[in-house]
Amino acid sequence: MMLIRLLIVGLLVLLFWAGTRNLKIVPGRWQGAFESVFLFARKSIIYDTLGEERGRRYEPILMTMFWLILCMNLTGTIPGLQLAGTAAIGLPLVLALVSWVMFIYAGMKEKGMKFWKDSLFPPGVPAWLYVFIAPLEFLSTFIVRPVTLTLRLTMNMIAGHMLLVLCFTATQFFFFTVLASGNLLGLLGIGSFAFGLAFTVLELFIAALQAYVFAILSAIYIQLAVAEEH
Predict the structure, then answer these.
(1) C-beta separation of 214 from 149 below 8 A
(2) Average pLDDT, stretch 89-117?
(3) Residues 6 or more apart in contact with residue 161 via CB below 8 angstroms
(4) Between 145-173 and 188-226, two packed helices, what is the crossing angle to 10 degrees?
(5) pTM of the model
(6) Cα separation of 192 and 140, whole Å?
(7) Residues ≥6 apart with Cβ < 8 Å to 11
(8) pLDDT in tens, 66-87
(9) Which DSSP category does 126 fall into?
(10) CA-to-CA dists, residue 100 to 34, 91, 111, 218, angstroms
(11) Stretch 5-11: mean pLDDT
């Protein structure tokens, strides 16, 4: 797991170095493809959520989150690796804590102590209800959010990994154990292999989706922290 994570970090550094070391005003094919993917992620995740001015402030860390999670997720479908770097809870937990710290930092930077008042005491609620509302707001805002970010990413990657393991292990069993012994039931391996391919395509989609969801939720939490009322 740690070797996969180190490999992905190294590849990301190499990718962004190669993509930005010789930028031209009129981009070539490689630079154009790189910029298209990068700019799409930046606009849809950051600028559409936070606006361009505020988005530039948090862009480095949000884009790092997105690309790191995306590439870590994709390792679960690469033959020879076949294990997502986010399929163990440590990395998702660290990223969720970074998102949580960003949320608090953004609120404190732009609103000061008023951030805590807005977070724990929503307007329009009778004062006597704050005894019940404030603890619930604290739990949902400061505890549940990082927990759900962590578990959503981890569980999706573990589930995908187990499905692929099940399908391709069954394929190996049917072809090389059952069919090799002369039992035609081994032909069931064709079906398990087909399901494995289908789940691989699904896993590619989920890998991209989970990276997008994690990054955009982190951006939304920042927006909620600096909003006047939420």
Answers:
(1) yes
(2) 94
(3) 76, 82, 83, 84, 87
(4) 170
(5) 0.90
(6) 42
(7) 71
(8) 999 999 999 999 988 889 999 9
(9) -
(10) 30, 14, 16, 8
(11) 95
